[in-house]
Design a protein that fits this description.
The protein is mainly β. Helices cover 13% and strands 35% of the residues. The chain is built from six helices and 40 strands. It has a 13-stranded parallel sheet, covered by helices on one side. The chain has a 13-stranded parallel sheet with strand order 3-6-9-12-15-18-21-24-27-30-33-36-38, covered by helices on one side. Strands 4-7-10-13-16-19-22-25-28-31-34-37 form a twelve-stranded parallel sheet. Helix 2 links the parallel strand 1 and strand 2.
């Protein structure tokens, strides 16, 4: 077929004529109602639009100089019900607080939605994806209404029955849970920062998700993963949370790799977890490094660095039969974990201690039964007691045994420890 420049020019004119840019002056909703699929609605700030907007066409809302949609404390400022909508550079605020409605700053009920460089302030939920797949929520800030009790706030980013979404580089603060996933599978949650919430990230019945390189701090719990399987939790930082860094309940067949949990009451809190793999995590300066209970079994812990936790591992004394006798392994092949309170030596220079590490020695036995004695767990006297037990064990009780303790932490853990000692909190910046 012979090329015809005239035909090409005609096609270009038709395409440009079919996608208009509409300057919004007084009402976003009226501009939307007159628009066609593919059009762009341009909002110039600092204009404040006092309305609630429902998007039912495949359009782009593009803001410049921070335009605002203000719902005047009622309903959802922005509701998206058409596939392929894009929202950029807009602030929504002052939505309603009826969580049953549900009121949300941005309520998404359509797939392939893209929300970028926007901000949600107050109201109920922040950004709510309801049965919406293949969406991208990128580089946004969600700020909850801290004047409300925590239980009456919505979650910052909430997914229900939504899959294959990317939640990337967002900042969430002051909401109930930072990010909540219910029946939401195959999502990527990466490089977000969540602080001052109940659970920074909360899974319920959500599988095959990837939780990567997030920073979780100042929450009650950094991440709470419940009733989930086949998830990847990698390179996250949970520090200075009030209770737990990462909590697991009935999590199965998942991988926890290269995470840093430090400065909490409990680093990892694990209940009824099975067939999970914990590899090369830094578990540092928590009151309890690893709390393992309630029949957790067939988990593998290898290459992790347990560093200066007041109690490296603790299991409730009333769950001895369920917890301590479960078939968890603290080694793989002939490689175990690094324990900062290990007093053995490397006999042949292979980086492995020549004597096993025992979690339940005399001191561990006492601390398990008298938690107030934990204050002495990192004292010189405790180290001397552990050293003497290598020669003459005083107790024969079940507990964690690592037959191949590492003499030095992995290079990844050493790098993270160096950053901690320099005062840098291992935290990457996110949208604010």
């Amino acid at each position: 077929m012979k090329f015809c420049p005239t035909i090409l020019c005609a096609l270009l004119v038709e395409v440009s004529a079919g996608a208009a840019t509409i300057q919004v002056t007084d009402s976003i909703q009226r501009a939307h109602d007159s628009a066609k699929d593919g059009d762009t609605l341009l909002l110039n700030g600092p204009t404040v639009f006092h309305e609630r907007v429902k998007i039912t066409k495949r359009v782009e809302l593009r803001g410049t100089n921070n335009p605002v949609i203000d719902a005047d404390a009622s309903g959802s400022p922005l509701r998206i019900e058409a596939e392929g909508v894009q929202v950029r550079g807009i602030t929504v605020r002052n939505g309603g607080t009826d969580l049953g409605a549900p009121d949300a700053g941005i309520l998404i009920r359509a797939s392939k939605t893209f929300v970028e460089n926007s901000r949600v302030e107050g109201g109920g939920f922040g950004i709510y994806l309801r049965a919406s797949d293949n969406c991208r929520i990128v580089n946004n800030a969600i700020l909850g209404n801290t004047n409300l009790p925590n239980a009456k706030r919505g979650n910052g980013i909430h997914l229900w029955k939504s899959k294959n979404n990317a939640i990337v580089n967002n900042f969430v603060s002051g909401t109930r849970d930072g990010m909540y996933f219910s029946y939401a599978d195959q999502n990527v949650i990466a490089s977000n920062r969540v602080e001052h919430t109940r659970f920074g990230i909360h899974y319920m019945y959500s599988h095959h998700n990837q939780l990567r390189a997030n920073t979780l701090t100042g929450n009650s719990v950094g991440a709470a993963l419940m009733f989930a399987r086949d998830c990847l939790v990698e390179d996250n930082r949970a520090f200075a949370n009030l209770r737990h860094g990462i909590l697991l309940k009935q999590v199965e067949s998942s991988r926890f790799v290269h995470n840093a949990v430090y400065g909490q009451n409990r680093g990892f809190f694990i209940q009824q977890a099975a067939l999970d793999r914990f590899e090369e995590n830094l578990i540092c300066e928590n009151d309890i490094g690893l709390y393992l209970s309630n029949g957790s079994e067939q988990n593998v812990f290898v290459g992790n660095a347990f560093v200066r936790n007041t109690d490296q591992i603790w299991q409730p004394t009333d769950e001895v039969e369920m917890g301590r006798l479960a078939s968890n392994k603290f080694y793989e092949g002939q490689r175990g974990n690094f324990w900062s309170d290990y007093t053995g030596t490397d006999g042949d220079g292979n980086g492995i201690g020549k004597t096993p590490y025992h979690e339940t020695d005399v001191l561990g036995y006492i601390v398990d039964r008298h938690p107030e004695a934990r204050v002495f767990a990192i004292s010189p006297a405790a180290a001397l007691l552990r050293k003497s037990e290598e020669v003459l064990p005083l107790l024969d009780v079940q507990g964690v045994t690592d037959p191949f303790p590492l003499i030095t932490p992995t290079s990844d853990s050493l790098a993270k420890m160096a950053l901690l000692q320099s005062g840098y909190p291992l935290a990457k910046g996110s949208a604010k």
